[in-house]
Structure formats: structure tokens, C-alpha cells
Amino acid sequence: MKSTIPGSTKRVAFDDAIVDPNPLVDNLGNPVLDNLNKPVHKLKYHETKLTEAAPWTSNQSSEVIEAFADPAKVKTDTYGNEFLEFEIRSSSSILDNQVPGTILKQGRTIRLYKTDVYKSFGNGQENGIPITNNVF
Amino acid sequence: MYFKKMEEEKIIESLTSVLPRGFEIISQFPLLVLCKKSDNGNFQEIVLADLENRKINNLFGAIHIHQIESLVKPNYKPYKDGGTIRIGEHYKLFNKYPARTRILEQLPIMLENPKDLEKAGDLIKTFIYEDAFPFFEYWQDIRDFIPFLENDDMIYVAWDVFSGEAMYQKMTVMWLCNHPRYEDFKEASLNSIQSRLEKDPENNNLKKALNNTFRFLKRLEKTKPLYEWDESFLEKKPFKII
User: Fold this and answer.
1) What is the pTM of this model?
2) Whole-angstrom Cα distance, residue A50 to residue B199?
């Protein structure tokens, strides 16, 4: 799934992303809406790397990892949790083809909380069980 | 390379041979997409296969209602733009899945040998005649959308119906049908954006969204409505399964 931070020209490919099919709600139980009154969905982002020290790709780094440190990009919800919002750029047909029956469509907004970024790495261990850590 | 190309041509020829007349290929990579323009100007779109990975992962379709899409997005293109309604939304609205389960059970199909192509052809036929045609048949006219857009909460946009910019699509249907609550919906939608902008006045994306909405409304309201409002528009047309 390719996505961009609105206003940015760089696309991030979320290879392993889990999106909650139920739209996000605020503290009053009302759906959270994007700029054009569409529902916003929550995303968990998981990246698998070979080793703990393996670098992020350039766009993963600038649009996700560094973006969480950029006050112009990072936002805070009513509970004080920090998040980034992305607009889905993959075409609706591609999304439908990859995941039959998906609720995701081009132009939808997805929200990634700082606590929902994970990185797994194997470090070449013999038992092959990867270690998954929160990035932040 | 030449051999590979021939093979692709064979796959395309075989998969499209089972389609009824009028469907033309509008995209081959990464997805094999076909489209038919019907007499009323609407586009019927069918996505058959993922040729890049040589497999069929899903069979689905969309309909582009010209009267809506040409106002929402002048120069819209079938396949490139999401369409007015997709078959996935249609299944959910009626909670009826005529051939869906049977089809999904047999997917994905890897397209590697003539036997796969034969199996795929049968599945495509099932999809076209049992699922896609009744779906295309149902959504012919902008009035068909009205019963699905009614809600007391005026901010509610039929996200579950429309596949693209649902707010603009709902405004278009209401305007063209002279819906008595068009102004209420327009006002509620604009208020929703404006109130967020008041809380976050430096947000350029919100400013852009608001300007785009004004531009869209100007275009929309220059167009003459197509129908006089009638209460009968509120009645849901029955969905017939073949």
C-alpha cells in the first residue's frame, strides 16, 4: 500500500500494514473525519529487517521515522497521543485486487500512532524466531 | 523476451474470449482491466487478472456513472479513478453474495498452463453472469442512489456506498435530483470543514480541501438539475439475482 503525508511528494510503501476496518472514533464516540469528511482508519505498521541495525529506506526514514520528530507533520489527538496521517495513493483497483473486499480506497486517510510502529529482525539466530520491538 | 510476450498475449486472449461483446481492454499491467461504455454514457469496468504476477487474486468490477463522475472530477478515467460504486460495496449493501463465496474459494489461480486458463475462464463466466451483470443492471441511474443516502445526521456521508470522494458524489446526486435537503447537506458538510479550520487555522491541507469544495460547488450548481424531486425516489429498487 503506497501512501503519502498530504502535501508531501514522497510515497511510502507500507509492505506490512494492518488497518482496523472500523473507523476511528473520538472521545465522544463520533467518527473522526478527514478533510473531505471521510472516515479515518487506524494503521499498525510493521517492518521486517534482517538485523536490528539494518537501515530504513530513504522514504520510510523521512516520512515515518523522522516525521515523528517534525512538529509540522506530527499531530496530537484528544488523549495527547502523537500520530501521523497519510493519504492512500495506491489505486482502488490495486487495493481490491490485493485484498478482496477491503474497505481501503484511494484517497482515504489512515492514521499511524507513534506507539504502533514495529520492527522485527532475526539477527541470523538459529531458531529463526524474530524479535519484534516498538520503534519508539 | 519474445517468448514471454507471446505467452502474455495467449493469457489475455484466453481470459477475454469468454467476455460478452463490447468490453475493451483499457489496461494490461499490472492488472488486466476491461471496460464497456453503455448507451447512457456509464462505464462498466471489470478487473480480471494480475498479469504482473500471473495470477487471479480477485474478480471484481466497478461502475462509473457518467453524470456523477464528470461533475466530481472532470476528465475522470475509468480504472484510473475509483468509480462511483464498486461491486464490493454493492455486496455489502444488499448482504447478498450470489457467486462470491464460490469464486473466492477457488482463488487465487496461478496462470501457468492451459488447464489454469480453462479454470479461470469458467470462473470469469460465473462472475460475469451471476455477479457482475446483476450489479451493472442495478446501478443505471443516479436516482438509484437516493434511498442509500438518507440519514438524519446530515454530516453522514454515504462512505459505504460510494467508492471515491463520497461527499462530492452525494452532493451531486442530491443536486441533480433536486433533493429537498440538498442545502442542509451542503451547509453541514461545509460547516464540518470550516469548524476544523477554525481550530487549526494554519492547516494548509484543510484550506485546500475547503477551496476545492467551493470550486466543486460552483461547477455543480452551474449544472441544471436533471429531475424534479419525487418522494418515490426514496424507495429502494429490488435487487434481482439471475
Assistant:
1) 0.90
2) 44
